[in-house]
Amino acid sequence: MIPMVKPFVAPAEVMMPEIERTLYSGYIAEGEKVYEFESVFGSYIRNSNVLSLNSGTAALHIALLLAGVGPGDEVISTALTAEPTNVAIKLTGAKVVWADVDVNTGLIDPESIRQKITERTKAIMVVHYAGMVCDMDKINIVSSETGIPVIEDTAHAMGSGYCGKPVGGNSAYTCFSLQAIKHLTTVDGGFIALKTPDRLPDARKLRWFGLDKKVPRLENDIKFPGYKYHMNNVNATIGLVQMRYIDRVVGRHKDNGRYFDKALSGIPGVTLLPYYGHTEPSYWLYTLKVENRNDFVRMMEENGIAASELHLRNDRHSVFAESKCELPALDEFYSTFVHIPCGWWVTDADRERIVALIKKGW
Ligand SMILES: *Cc1c(COP(=O)(O)O)cnc(C)c1O
User: Fold this and answer.
1) Are strands 95-98 and 74-77 parallel, antiparallel or unpaired?
2) Burial of 316 (0-12, 13-18, 19+ CB in 10 A)
3) Which one of 12, 199, 222, 261 has the largest count of C-beta atoms within 10 Å of its C-beta?
């Protein structure tokens, strides 16, 4: 079976000596390796205002807290995402308010965001689902006109681009995941990237109990409670090795994605998704719309190729019951879209076979 997702781990002969050195170095907590990884990652996304964390969920949580989100507030978000996006909002005590999606792309619709804004709206959460970048030109306008900050969930979008730059520096807050199946994994981990450095000290305290690491422990004074969200030297060592391969890994996702963009166009029963202006997808998954989706999925799976929606639309969870509302565009998109594998493990022969199968029909 060609899987939908697969962890990329650098070859053992490169990875293991580095891990061994760190493990027995006498310092495995947050230390130099972590700071080195932050600097390398910051260069990759061309934004040095980054903090490593132990998960993407931690990044989302800290972003929401920095945006001042708390009980009684509302955060506008999308239901078409992995659950952590919206569970993180619930963790703050705020209410999730669903915006509808653009029926052509499945990505959050800027017009719907605008309609859902109230005096309680504290943040707008956007998800570059499957690696496709949201309509940031329009979302930026909504944000600047209303003064409501945008949090970009880029868990699927490492290496995606906006305005010729990697995602990670456009909005007030950007949240990356380094979880097992994302483009770049450290087993588990995450990054928050801030547009400006002014809130970095607060973010640092939130990541470590509220303590200030620059002040000696016996002189420290916790003013607000923080979490235990930091990355350790072992995961950072893995990350530093993985970064040597990031261009190859992301490059292969993109190459496969562009191949499908061309080879799958014009096939009866298939509708390809358009990409917004100034955006470049990094194709974590390849997403398309198909007629008779159940038959399509069955045909693909009978031929050893994973195909599915992958995520349950989040508004179906009981925990979001208070947010229930009509989402007609999502209803339509959700009934026809499907993901197929497109990652670094998909070979030339694989992708040719996938296209041939789809051309034959289902
Ligand atoms: C994976 C993921 C997250 C959370 O990342 P973790 O590192 O697993 O905490 C958040 N949002 C989306 C869309 C994800 O896919």
Assistant:
1) parallel
2) exposed
3) 199
- Confirm if 104 and 134 have CB atoms less than 8 A apart: no
pLDDT digits (tens, 9 = 90+) for 130-145: 999 999 999 999 999 9
- Element spanning 173, H or E: strand 173-177
131 lines ligand 1 (CB under 6 A): no
pLDDT digits (tens, 9 = 90+) for 252-292: 999 999 999 999 999 999 999 999 999 999 999 999 999 99
- For ligand 1, is residue 81 a contact (CB within 6 Å)? yes
Tell me the whole-structure pTM to 2 decimals: 0.98
Cross-strand bridge partners of residue 52? 191
d(C-alpha 344, C-alpha 350), whole Å: 11
Q: Which residues pair with 286 in a beta bridge?
A: 340
User: Ligand 1: does its nearest atom lie under 6 Å from the Cβ of 233?
Assistant: no
Chain centre distance of CA 319: 21
Q: Which two tokens stand for residue 170?
A: 């456009």
Q: Tokens for 17, please give them.
A: 């000596």
Q: Is the shortest distance between the CB of 330 and ligand 1 below 6 Å? A: no
Supply the Cα-derived Rg of the chain in whole angstroms: 21
Q: What is the pLDDT of residues 41-92, one digit of tens each?
A: 999 999 999 999 999 999 999 999 999 999 999 999 999 999 999 999 999 9
